[in-house]
Description:
mainly alpha; 12 helices; DNA-binding; TetR/AcrR family transcriptional regulator; single chain; HTH-type_TetR-like_transc_reg
Amino acid sequence: MSGELVEPRSRRRPQRHRGTAAAASGPAEPVSVAAAPPKRRRRTPQDTRAALLKAAVAEFAREGYGGARVDRISKAARSNDRMLYYYFHSKEELFRQVIEHCYARLVAEEEALELDVTRPREALTALVAFNWAYYWDHPELISILASENLFKGRHVKNKIRAAFASSQFFTLERILDHGAKSGVFRPDCDSFLVYMSILSLTYFYRSNLHTLSNYMQVDLAEPARRDAWLAHVQRMIDDLVRRR
């Protein structure tokens, strides 16, 4: 007997004939190759600036000017502080541009209003409804303006005032003028006082929603209460200007 070691039969593994098995099972199906995922569009400078501005709106609305942090803004925008300062130079300038951005959006929606001034009562009612809805849909504007008022409006003076004069005010003047000429409205209506009344009655409810709800022990956010207040304000404004 030689000294060669032989693997026991029980441990021997039968060899597989892959070619025979493949032939028995028929032709192999073609292997599908997954398509490469589409390449993501490279971010442009405009994209980066817009992302930083959007993140800044959210940060200033949530934390106010004093509590807002530049590093949180750049992180939320998936950018960095260097790029933020490149586009906006300082936190103060960024806040000013955030306010400008919010005003620009408001004015754009005001200009998109299609009001028939030849039907002055209906147009005035629609104008009140626009303000009411806008403040509800843009709570960030409420928060940012509250923060700016703590600084006595120093960021919105001059440049923003000149660039974003409210077209809504001029629309209101046309409505009141047409209403007076047609005998529907009083001829002595002061457009400034009417405008301030509309803003006050629609803005105050929204801006003081939480404290008033607690003080009055009611939920002022309830749809029924909101609808009732809007109808009330519309009647008040109509009564204010309507000719007796």
